[in-house]
Every structure is written in structure tokens, then in C-alpha cells.
Amino acid sequence: MAAAARGRGRGRGGFGVPKPGKSGEKSEQQADISTEKSSNEFDLTKVLNDLRENTLDTQVKEISHHISQSSSSTKVKDVVDHLIQRTIKKSDFAPLAAKVANKLCSDESFGIAFRGDLLKSTQEQYKKRESIRANSTSEWIGLACFICELFRHLRTGEAPLRPLAAAVHQTLSELLSSEGQNGNNDEELEGDEIDCFYENFKGVGFLLETVNQEKAEELLGMMRDTILSDNSSAKTRCLLLEMLEFHARQGKISSKVEDYFSDKLAEIMANEL
After folding, report:
1. I need a labelling partner for 152 at 20 to 30 A (CA). Which of 27, 35, 46, 142 fits?
2. How many CB atoms lie within 10 A of CB 158?
3. Basic and acidic residues bias: where (predicted)?
4. Alpha carbon distance 147, 123 (integer Å)
5. CB atoms within 10 A of CB 174
């Protein structure tokens, strides 16, 4: 009977029941199950959906912990893809995405790998920008915002990431050159691209100038040419004039000047209704 009892005990152990360890200890099998469960419970999409400026540090720690678990190279690629695709689909996510990316690039354990994957994947999307633009203006705008925000936030030491400067210049140039190219039926789409140029030049124009003054001057020249073009809309002229004033005053526009451009733009928009 005792032997039978011992046999039944060994049988239950053989079905995956771990041997009891010392109090407070976990067996290797329990640790593996715990790690797997923790990994499976992590919902990257939900974390990104819930990202807010005031909770950014906490949520980045969650993502870092997720990546630091086993198979980190796969998880790095997964996080990079999620950040890029979410921003392409939703351009206003770009500032948060870039801030998350910058923090993850600084991680001691996987930061270098993350930066490499991030830049490689962004470059792949950048090379496809013409087809993206042809298929969806909103996705093209999302990509443009992501590239500009990466340039704005990514740092090597205290310096901006210089290799991104050329892509930023080209992206802004293509946004600006949309004016008058697509015909009257696409005025709304052209307006979206000009709005995108306006917001991103305001954010990265001076930074681009510190990295490559020649490219920045080239953009300013394009802005002047666009203002003078017969094909440019009144809204475009107003926005670009404001940007030239913004640049001339080193980003310090008085409230009186701001009110002028705001009122002028409101008047233009009202007349277009």
C-alpha cells in the first residue's frame, strides 16, 4: 500500500505539478510560466492607445519591461512597427510616438537595437512615401509628421539626429510643393498638406537650420515662391506669411501679430464657405 501510494504521488508529479520548493522560492518551471503569463497579458496596442503626456514615463516603463523579457529583438521590432503604423494612421499621435521612441532609444539594455530598428523601418516607409501619398493623403501626412517629430525629439547626446535632416527637408519640400499640383478637385487635400507643413515647420524649422542652414534657407525660398504663385490659395499665402514672420522674429511673434493672422485666416475660411 505504501509503495502504491508512493507510485501515485510520482504519477501526479509527472503531469506537470512542480515539486514544492522552500518557502518564498519559485521553481524554474513556475518562473517560466510566470514570465510567459506576464508577456501574454501585456497588450501593446492598449498601452499605446492609453498614452498620455502626463503618464508617459509610467507607460514607457511598461513597454521597456515588455521588451526586456525574452526574445527582445522580436519585441523591439513589434514596438517599432506599432509606433510607426499607429502614427501613419493617426498623425496627431506623432509627438507622443517620437517621445516614446526617444526614451526607448536611451534604454541601456536594448536602446541601440531599438534605434537601429526604428531608423531602418522609418527609412523603409520614407522610401515608399510616393506610393503612400498616392494611396492616402492622410497616411502620407502621418508619415511626414512622424519623420519631423523624430527629428525634433531624437538625440545623440544633446544633438539632434543629423542623418534625419535630409529626410525632414525633403518631406517638408514635398508637403509645400503640393499646392496647386492636384487640381481644383483636391483643394481640401492640398490644404491638409499645407497645414501639415505649417505645423511641422513651426516645430522643426529652427532645429533644421542649426543642422543644415542651406536646406532651411531653401525651404524659406520655396515658401516665398509659393506665396507669389498664382496657383496658391489665400489660406496658403496667409499661413506661409505667418511662418516667414515667425522665422524672421526667431519664433517670438507678438500677440498683436498672432491676432492679425488668426483674424485674417478666419476671414479667409469664412469666405470659402
Report:
1. 46
2. 5
3. 22-39
4. 9
5. 16
186 and 268 housed in the same domain: yes
Distance CA 251, CA 207 (A): 12
> What's the pLDDT tens digit per position in 180-195?
554 444 555 568 999 9
214: domain CATH number is 1.25.40.180
The C-alpha angle with vertex 91 and arms to 54 and 178, in degrees rounded to 5, equals 145
Hey, what's the cell of 133? 501619398
Q: 260 and 192, same structural domain?
A: yes
Q: What crossing angle do the helices spanning 72-89 and 137-153 adopt, rounded to 10°? A: 120
Same domain for 59 and 106: yes
246 and 173 share one domain: yes
Cα 82 to chain centroid distance, Å, stands at 10
Task: Evaluate if residue 13 carries a pLDDT over 80.
Answer: no
CB atoms within 10 A of CB 265: 15
* Cα distance between residue 43 and residue 49, in whole Å: 10
CA–CA separation, 16 and 31 (whole Å): 14
SS3 state of residue 110: coil
Q: What is the pLDDT of residues 75-108, one digit of tens each?
A: 999 999 999 999 999 999 999 999 999 999 999 8
CA distance 208 to 160: 9
- Spatial contact of 168 and 151, defined as CB atoms under 8 Å apart: yes
Q: Residue 208 in contact with residue 169, Cβ under 8 Å? A: yes
